[in-house]
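Hi all, long-time lurker, first post. I run a small reading group and we've been trying to get comfortable going from sequence to structure in the token notation. Rather than ask abstract questions, I figured I'd post a concrete chain and ask someone more experienced to write out its structure so we can walk through it together at our next meeting. Sequence below, copied exactly:
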Amino acid sequence: MEKVAIVILNWNGQAMLEKYLPSVMQYSRAEATVYVADNASTDQSLEMLKTHFPEVRQICLEKNWGFAEGYNQALRQVDATYYLLLNSDIEVTHHWLTPMIEYLDSHPEVAACQPKLLSIIDKDRFEYAGASGGYLDRLGYPFCRGRIFETVEADNGQYDYSTDILWATGAALMIRSKDYWEAGGLDSRFFAHNEEIDLCWRLRIRGRRIVCLPESYVYHVGGGTLPKGNPMKTFLNFRNNLTMLYKCLPDEELKSVMRWRWWLDYLAAWEMLLLKRNVGDFKAVYRARRAFKRWRKDFESDRRAIQASRVAKEIPERRSFSLLWQYYVKGRKMFTQLP
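-- Answer (accepted) --
Happy to help. Here is the structure in token form:
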């Protein structure tokens, strides 16, 4: 069994691999084996790897499984103590792996961790997709140390301390293989978006810890698969977030939170239409709500199993306030301003 396996999921990402894989190889080979799992790409990704990165191990999947099931399919073929799920548009840095490996080695109660995620476009700012560790508010809206909704902070060292978080970014997620499979892996039905939050929440319900270790840091392009403003991304985010809430919310909160989200989701849809003139996203929210209603019954057994696995009733990293109220009414745009 290998100690650490870095697994990069690729779909037609030849340009990203050519640009960012060299940093992964330069700063990781001494401590990890690097895999590229290919989701049936139609570009020259595999040929490029054979020519320029022969030391990279290839996992060739027979079709595009999406992010969630693509990783499940690939990781079944990897025998390692720690998996590190890494986006192809990540530039890593010297000594980035060591803090995470040492922390997991010395903290057996921790299931997963992430490095600090910075923007490759502006290296003094956090990156949207995970910043310095993720949380949820009481209605299921995700936010990070360093990013709340569209407000992304400059990195001035204000979050340069390790801390427990609710979810670690899927862009650079190190996780024990044992925990990954005991929690059921990524939910393949999500296809993409919210799948790592869902997995990490399930781990926290089981009493396992998730941490951010900012002494390790990487740079992320972000938005490479589906850019912001893409109706499919809006659809997946709304549908999957609702599904995650249905699976993971405690019984006593489920009806109340879902009632609030019904109103807030449709309010968001009309705001997209009337204020932003975005017909595509408006329709995407309505489609997401209908899709969730249609497939909710398919997750009843998942919900029962998750609730039965609950160790702690209260999870501190799932905050009790409304992020919408704090952000839009109170004007609190930064993590340090939140209650």
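A couple of things your group might point at:
The mean pLDDT is 96.
The radius of gyration is 19 Å.
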